[in-house]
Amino acid sequence: MPKSAARGAPEAISGRNRNSGTMARFALPITEVLVVADCWQTEPDAEAVIQRAIATAAEIVHAGPAGGADFGEAELAVMLTDDAGIRTLNSNWRGIDKPTNVLSFPALQPTGAGGPDDAPRMLGDIAIAYETTRQEADDEQKPFDHHLSHLAVHGFLHLMGYDHETDDDAEAMEGLEQEILAQLGIPNPYADRDGKD
Predict the structure, then answer these.
(1) How far apart are CA 106 and CA 159, in angstroms?
(2) Are 83 and 102 in contact (CB under 8 A)?
(3) Which of 25, 65, 136, 162 pairs as cysteine with 12 (C-beta 3.0–4.6 A)?
(4) Which 8-state DSSP code applies to residue 131?
Protein backbone atom coordinates (compact mmCIF):
# COMPACT_ATOMS: atom_id res chain seq x y z
CA MET A 1 0.00 0.00 0.00
CA PRO A 2 1.41 3.44 -0.82
CA LYS A 3 2.66 5.69 1.94
CA SER A 4 0.62 8.61 3.24
CA ALA A 5 1.32 11.67 5.29
CA ALA A 6 -1.27 10.46 7.80
CA ARG A 7 0.80 8.48 10.25
CA GLY A 8 0.12 7.36 13.80
CA ALA A 9 2.81 7.96 16.36
CA PRO A 10 4.57 4.81 17.61
CA GLU A 11 4.56 6.11 21.14
CA ALA A 12 4.65 3.95 24.20
CA ILE A 13 1.40 3.67 26.07
CA SER A 14 0.40 2.05 29.27
CA GLY A 15 -2.86 1.05 30.80
CA ARG A 16 -4.46 -1.44 33.08
CA ASN A 17 -4.89 -5.03 32.07
CA ARG A 18 -7.68 -7.40 33.02
CA ASN A 19 -5.91 -8.32 36.26
CA SER A 20 -5.86 -4.67 37.40
CA GLY A 21 -2.08 -4.60 37.46
CA THR A 22 -0.21 -1.97 35.55
CA MET A 23 0.90 -3.07 32.12
CA ALA A 24 4.45 -2.62 30.99
CA ARG A 25 5.03 0.16 28.49
CA PHE A 26 5.40 -0.93 24.90
CA ALA A 27 5.56 0.61 21.46
CA LEU A 28 2.41 0.78 19.37
CA PRO A 29 2.54 -0.26 15.75
CA ILE A 30 2.74 2.66 13.35
CA THR A 31 -0.65 2.87 11.67
CA GLU A 32 -0.98 4.74 8.40
CA VAL A 33 -4.49 5.65 7.31
CA LEU A 34 -4.91 6.31 3.60
CA VAL A 35 -8.15 7.83 2.36
CA VAL A 36 -8.54 6.82 -1.29
CA ALA A 37 -12.28 7.44 -1.79
CA ASP A 38 -13.98 10.82 -1.55
CA CYS A 39 -17.03 9.35 0.21
CA TRP A 40 -14.96 9.18 3.42
CA GLN A 41 -14.88 13.01 3.52
CA THR A 42 -18.30 12.81 5.24
CA GLU A 43 -16.55 11.11 8.20
CA PRO A 44 -13.78 13.53 9.23
CA ASP A 45 -13.08 11.59 12.45
CA ALA A 46 -12.54 8.24 10.69
CA GLU A 47 -8.74 8.34 10.98
CA ALA A 48 -8.84 9.13 14.72
CA VAL A 49 -11.43 6.37 15.28
CA ILE A 50 -9.20 3.84 13.50
CA GLN A 51 -6.02 4.97 15.29
CA ARG A 52 -7.74 4.62 18.68
CA ALA A 53 -9.26 1.23 17.85
CA ILE A 54 -5.97 -0.25 16.65
CA ALA A 55 -3.99 1.21 19.57
CA THR A 56 -6.47 -0.35 22.02
CA ALA A 57 -6.40 -3.67 20.16
CA ALA A 58 -2.58 -3.68 20.20
CA GLU A 59 -2.57 -2.96 23.93
CA ILE A 60 -4.95 -5.83 24.70
CA VAL A 61 -3.25 -8.30 22.35
CA HIS A 62 0.07 -7.36 23.97
CA ALA A 63 -1.35 -8.04 27.45
CA GLY A 64 -3.39 -11.12 26.46
CA PRO A 65 -2.85 -14.76 27.33
CA ALA A 66 -0.61 -15.31 24.31
CA GLY A 67 0.78 -11.93 25.35
CA GLY A 68 3.91 -10.08 24.74
CA ALA A 69 3.21 -9.28 21.08
CA ASP A 70 6.06 -7.03 20.05
CA PHE A 71 4.93 -4.08 17.96
CA GLY A 72 8.17 -2.09 18.16
CA GLU A 73 9.09 -0.83 14.68
CA ALA A 74 6.01 -2.57 13.24
CA GLU A 75 3.78 -0.89 10.66
CA LEU A 76 0.37 -1.45 9.12
CA ALA A 77 -1.74 0.49 6.67
CA VAL A 78 -5.49 1.02 6.63
CA MET A 79 -6.99 2.03 3.30
CA LEU A 80 -10.37 3.74 3.43
CA THR A 81 -11.94 2.91 0.08
CA ASP A 82 -15.38 2.58 -1.44
CA ASP A 83 -17.44 -0.44 -2.47
CA ALA A 84 -15.99 -0.42 -6.00
CA GLY A 85 -12.42 -0.47 -4.67
CA ILE A 86 -13.02 -3.22 -2.15
CA ARG A 87 -14.99 -5.24 -4.72
CA THR A 88 -11.90 -5.21 -6.95
CA LEU A 89 -9.68 -6.33 -4.06
CA ASN A 90 -12.17 -9.02 -3.05
CA SER A 91 -12.36 -10.30 -6.63
CA ASN A 92 -8.61 -10.23 -7.25
CA TRP A 93 -7.51 -11.76 -3.93
CA ARG A 94 -10.42 -13.94 -2.86
CA GLY A 95 -12.25 -14.68 -6.11
CA ILE A 96 -15.45 -13.15 -4.70
CA ASP A 97 -16.88 -10.55 -7.08
CA LYS A 98 -18.81 -8.39 -4.62
CA PRO A 99 -18.08 -5.69 -2.09
CA THR A 100 -17.54 -6.47 1.59
CA ASN A 101 -16.96 -4.35 4.69
CA VAL A 102 -13.33 -5.13 5.56
CA LEU A 103 -10.44 -7.10 4.11
CA SER A 104 -7.12 -7.89 5.77
CA PHE A 105 -3.88 -8.77 4.07
CA PRO A 106 -1.29 -10.04 6.58
CA ALA A 107 2.27 -9.38 5.46
CA LEU A 108 4.52 -12.29 4.75
CA GLN A 109 7.22 -12.30 7.38
CA PRO A 110 10.80 -12.65 6.14
CA THR A 111 12.63 -15.83 6.97
CA GLY A 112 16.35 -16.04 7.52
CA ALA A 113 18.81 -13.25 6.90
CA GLY A 114 17.53 -10.67 4.51
CA GLY A 115 16.75 -6.99 4.62
CA PRO A 116 18.43 -4.28 6.60
CA ASP A 117 18.14 -4.44 10.37
CA ASP A 118 16.54 -0.99 10.47
CA ALA A 119 13.70 -1.87 8.06
CA PRO A 120 10.27 -1.71 9.71
CA ARG A 121 8.40 -4.95 10.19
CA MET A 122 5.20 -4.88 8.16
CA LEU A 123 2.12 -6.35 9.84
CA GLY A 124 -0.01 -5.99 6.72
CA ASP A 125 -2.82 -3.97 5.20
CA ILE A 126 -6.50 -3.48 5.99
CA ALA A 127 -9.10 -2.11 3.56
CA ILE A 128 -12.49 -0.79 4.70
CA ALA A 129 -15.34 0.13 2.32
CA TYR A 130 -17.43 3.17 3.15
CA GLU A 131 -20.82 2.33 1.63
CA THR A 132 -21.00 -1.19 3.08
CA THR A 133 -19.82 0.03 6.49
CA ARG A 134 -22.38 2.86 6.46
CA GLN A 135 -25.20 0.55 5.35
CA GLU A 136 -24.41 -2.03 8.04
CA ALA A 137 -24.23 0.62 10.76
CA ASP A 138 -27.57 2.08 9.64
CA ASP A 139 -29.23 -1.34 9.31
CA GLU A 140 -28.04 -2.37 12.78
CA GLN A 141 -28.83 1.08 14.24
CA LYS A 142 -25.28 1.48 15.52
CA PRO A 143 -23.23 4.67 15.58
CA PHE A 144 -20.97 4.71 12.52
CA ASP A 145 -17.83 5.20 14.64
CA HIS A 146 -18.70 2.11 16.72
CA HIS A 147 -19.04 -0.05 13.62
CA LEU A 148 -15.89 1.44 12.07
CA SER A 149 -14.00 0.69 15.30
CA HIS A 150 -15.25 -2.90 15.20
CA LEU A 151 -14.11 -3.37 11.60
CA ALA A 152 -10.68 -1.87 12.34
CA VAL A 153 -10.29 -4.19 15.35
CA HIS A 154 -11.50 -7.17 13.31
CA GLY A 155 -9.02 -6.40 10.53
CA PHE A 156 -6.17 -5.90 13.01
CA LEU A 157 -6.86 -9.24 14.69
CA HIS A 158 -6.66 -10.95 11.29
CA LEU A 159 -3.22 -9.37 10.84
CA MET A 160 -2.29 -10.88 14.21
CA GLY A 161 -3.24 -14.36 13.01
CA TYR A 162 -6.75 -14.65 14.43
CA ASP A 163 -9.47 -16.05 12.19
CA HIS A 164 -13.00 -17.39 12.30
CA GLU A 165 -12.70 -20.49 10.11
CA THR A 166 -13.89 -22.85 12.87
CA ASP A 167 -16.48 -22.30 15.60
CA ASP A 168 -13.77 -22.34 18.28
CA ASP A 169 -11.63 -19.84 16.38
CA ALA A 170 -14.65 -17.60 15.78
CA GLU A 171 -15.60 -17.72 19.46
CA ALA A 172 -12.06 -16.78 20.52
CA MET A 173 -11.79 -13.95 17.99
CA GLU A 174 -15.24 -12.55 18.80
CA GLY A 175 -14.50 -12.69 22.53
CA LEU A 176 -11.32 -10.70 22.00
CA GLU A 177 -13.19 -8.21 19.79
CA GLN A 178 -15.79 -7.75 22.52
CA GLU A 179 -13.08 -7.16 25.14
CA ILE A 180 -11.30 -4.57 22.98
CA LEU A 181 -14.54 -2.80 22.08
CA ALA A 182 -15.63 -2.74 25.74
CA GLN A 183 -12.34 -0.99 26.54
CA LEU A 184 -13.35 1.59 23.91
CA GLY A 185 -16.79 1.98 25.52
CA ILE A 186 -18.54 0.21 22.62
CA PRO A 187 -21.27 -2.36 23.33
CA ASN A 188 -21.00 -5.99 22.26
CA PRO A 189 -21.58 -5.97 18.48
CA TYR A 190 -22.79 -9.58 18.63
CA ALA A 191 -25.40 -8.98 21.35
CA ASP A 192 -28.41 -9.18 19.04
CA ARG A 193 -27.15 -12.40 17.46
CA ASP A 194 -26.12 -13.96 20.77
CA GLY A 195 -29.09 -12.74 22.80
CA LYS A 196 -26.60 -11.22 25.27
CA ASP A 197 -26.40 -7.67 26.58
Answers:
(1) 5
(2) no
(3) 25
(4) H
- Residue ranges covered by each domain of the chain: 12-110+121-189
- Residue 135: count other Cβ atoms within 10 Å of its Cβ: 15
pLDDT digits (tens, 9 = 90+) for 157-193: 999 999 998 999 899 999 999 999 999 999 999 887 6
The overall pTM is greater than 0.85: no
Fold of the domain built from segment(s) 12-110+121-189:
Collagenase (Catalytic Domain) (3.40.390)
- Scanning the chain, the segments in alpha helix (DSSP H) are 46-63, 83-94, 130-139, 144-159, 167-183, 191-194
Give the Cβ contact number of residue 156 at 10 Å. Answer: 29
Q: Is 13 helix (H, G, I), strand (E, B) or coil?
A: strand
C-beta of residue 156 within 8 angstroms of C-beta of residue 184: no
